[in-house]
Amino acid sequence: MSTIAHADHDHHDHKPTGIKRWLFSTNHKDIGTMYLVFSLIMFFVGGSMAMIIRAELFQPGLQFVDPQFYNSMVTVHALVMIFGAVMPAGVGLANWMIPIMIGAPDMALPRMNNMSFWIMPFAFALLLGTLFMEGGGPASGWTMYPPLVLQTGKAFPYLIFAVHFLGISSIMGSINIIATVFNMRAPGMTLMRLPLFVWTWVITAFLLIASMPVLAGAVTMLLTDKYFGTSFFNAAGGGDPVLFQHIFWFFGHPEVYILALPAFGIISQIIPTFARKPLFGYASMVYATASIAILSFFVWGHHMFTVGLPITGELFFMYMTMLIAVPTGVKVFNWVATMWKGAMTFEAPMLFSIAFVILFTIGGFSGLMLGITPVDFQYHNTYFVVAHFHYVLLTGAVFALMASVYYWIPKWTGNMYDEKLAKIHFWLSTIFANILFFPQHFLGLAGMPRRIPDYSVQFTDFNMISSLGGFGYGISQLLFVYIVIKCVLGGKKATSQVWEGGRGLEWTLSSPPPYHSFTTPPKVTKTLMDY
Amino acid sequence: MHLNKIKVRFLPNFTVILSALFLLSPEILHAAWGLNMTPGATPISNEVYNMHMTSLYVVTAIGIAVFSVMFWSIFHHRKSKGAKPAKFSHSTTVEVIWTIIPFAIIVSLAIPATKLLAKMDDTSKSEITIKATGYQWKWKYDYINEDVTIYSNMASDSVDASQMNSGIDPNTADNYLRNTDTALVLPVGKKIRILTTANDVIHAWWVPDLGWQRDAIPGFINDNWTMINKVGVYRGQCAQICGKGHGYMPIVVKAVPEKEYQAWIEQTKVALNSKNSDSNKDFTLAELKAKGEGVYKANCLACHQANGQGIKGVFPAIDGSPLANLKENIPAHIHQVIYGKGIMPAFGEQLSDSDIASVVTFVRNNWGNKTGHVIQPKDVLAARKK
């Protein structure tokens, strides 16, 4: 009976058509595509907010937006970029690639997969809708610290429920990834033969499952503090405003690695491909990723060095934070060692990956400096921090995502992208991102706090440079959209392997792969990453 | 008009930027641009600066080493140069080495950092204690043991220039956004304990020249100290987002010799004692309006706006509101200014009777509010006694 059903399934590569194909989709490739398109849209939504911020900061004085709206731009930009752009892009890649990298026919829980995607547009409708309400959007910073966040007007419950929905979506996505990787690997695809992208995602999924409910708890307590008379975070009622920060950052720091680990995985796929040489230290990469994930639960206090923790607490968090530099260093050294004595070519994915290694490392350096508690008292809440986390998230995570799109889009569409335009996109992005964020180190050191709509005149010059870089970076991303659309519509046909150095199951499928792939699992007998 | 302004300011700056980039002289950059952290005015701030520089040199050295290897590889191990890929995929020896070396570097940074942190944490044996309380959006300073309390608002020329499209060049304001009407006066050469707390939301008290910032949290009191060596004026501002006026709560510390400090304390005590000396005096409408405008600018404008319209859905309008127009609401109006309501803070403690009388009179006779109501300080005094 089941044999018949199976054979029958294999025969027709049919797919539903029209809007139903997308609304009711249970196909990992379609859902992956929807995630990626959604995240690209959100990248531009969040990006246009960044443009408003940089326009206001172009020169001292208030020119375009009032401070309340400025604060809501700062807040919503962060929420959109974190929960709307980078995370869904990561989940989209996981959806598309994990099944075809491990030889599975689809994700383990296809209907849940559909739901975890379709929650997101509703969550963002709630969040972005607040910007058009009386009183405006949430303006407390994405960290939602009470008591300030409790001053939010009508936007408040929308903010809380948007965060809840996004959390539910992420948790479902994570359960799906874990279930897929642990149950649906092709025979012979042992854990230590998994492509590193899959490994980093499994670890990320565990981080999500462990940290998202904590955030949900924190925002629920905010909700009851505001509407139901509780005093979790109200000192006057016996509560503790710092408690929120502990809970929030217990989620928030792992969240940082939720954004970064899939990027590490992407880079670990791309560099060997274009160096035509196996990834150096595969096992140590897996262990380093796991160590970073575990350590990420013990460093939340470094976001709170200035709240007045006891000195023993500050020392503990300082040591743990500095310790993270060790496994992160191992990863960087491994990437460099992978390039060493390879035979490198420099297509767009490789260029973005090399830029990632350098610029993410610069973000890591400022991270190490920020981890030194007594000096953090001078860096804290300044543009030095803004520069730091944009180096790790924009030139880090987003650059890795750009690399991944160029790397895999020939597989997805069956067409090669325009290499020349992609290289122009790379150079524009890299140059402008550095003009945008490098001067912010100087602004922070010179004493400019973050999240201010206007500044003292000694900060004018670097803000101008930074804004120019910002506009340049923003405009350059339109080129990316053009390249993607052009590639979807046509171009040189891609081979199955796409890249000369492409190794792994995904490169054994045709480009584009059939709608249902690996319905008969492939047999894996040795590591697929040999050269 | 508006675009012209941008162009005019932009062009000379851009020339400066370009020429500076070409010259790249460190001295010029440092002087004109503020590239680096300040060594500050205290022994601690100097140690913090040194620790910062040490860690900066360490990471720069690591960066140069790692990126040199990488770029050497990028230039030599490329396919276009005929490179043949090697086969190796791991080496336990190098992996152990590059785990141990970073660990050793980190330990060598952590030791001095621990010592410095312990020093910064030790607030014992302080001679003077100040309590800094954050308000939306100003600072209050209590000189504990001296019975002196001052409020520090942003200076009014900065308030004017910082309004949306004010038409005032920020460069013409004295220390734009970093100047206050009242400075925190401290003596040099004494160990001063600074407590931070807040009245409404979380703020952070930060003067870079003192070498640290610390959050000011409602319901908590944080403990810090400083010892300023050099006479001078040191500027900073709130560092933790605290709402709409976050960018507008400057901190000015004026460090003076001990004698001058004592004189200032005495003088301020006298001034504070006579704060309510005019409570029984009657003023004309014009006098009250004139004074009230200044009080409004320092205390009310951030929320209710220069035009009295507030921000819809967040801060109510005063212009046209029943509270500020109907005669029967005068007592309620005075009461609300003294005791606050919702997120509106209580101003009773920080404003004198004549301040409150004049600001209430001002808003009742400004914009579209043309009530002709005159509120005298004695009305406020009476309301306080209720």
UniProtKB/TrEMBL annotation, chain A:
Pathway of action: Energy metabolism; oxidative phosphorylation
Source species: Candidatus Methylopumilus planktonicus
Annotated protein name in UniProt: Cytochrome c oxidase subunit 1
Membrane-crossing segments per the record: 31-53, 73-96, 117-135, 155-182, 194-223, 243-267, 279-301, 316-337, 349-369, 389-409, 421-442, 462-485
Occurrences of domain Cytochrome oxidase subunit I profile (ranges): 22-525
Gene3D superfamilies: Cytochrome c oxidase-like, subunit I domain (1.20.210.10)
Gene: ctaD
PANTHER family attached to this UniProt entry: CYTOCHROME C OXIDASE SUBUNIT 1 (PTHR10422)
BP GO annotations: electron transport coupled proton transport; oxidative phosphorylation; respiratory electron transport chain
GO cellular component terms, A-Z: plasma membrane; respiratory chain complex IV
PROSITE patterns: COX1 (PS50855), COX1_CUB (PS00077)
Keywords: Cell membrane, Copper, Electron transport, Heme, Iron, Membrane, Metal-binding, Oxidoreductase, Respiratory chain, Translocase, Transmembrane, Transmembrane helix, Transport
Alphabetical list of InterPro entries matching this protein: Cyt_c_oxase-like_su1_dom, Cyt_c_oxase-like_su1_sf, Cyt_C_Oxase_1, Cyt_c_Oxase_su1_BS, Cyt_c_oxase_su1_dom, Cyt_c_oxidase_su1_bac
EC number: 7.1.1.9
SUPFAM superfamilies cross-referenced by the UniProt entry: Cytochrome c oxidase subunit I-like (SSF81442)
Reaction(s) this enzyme catalyzes, per UniProt: 4 Fe(II)-[cytochrome c] + O2 + 8 H(+)(in) = 4 Fe(III)-[cytochrome c] + 2 H2O + 4 H(+)(out)
Function: Cytochrome c oxidase is the component of the respiratory chain that catalyzes the reduction of oxygen to water. Subunits 1-3 form the functional core of the enzyme complex. CO I is the catalytic subunit of the enzyme. Electrons originating in cytochrome c are transferred via the copper A center of subunit 2 and heme A of subunit 1 to the bimetallic center formed by heme A3 and copper B.
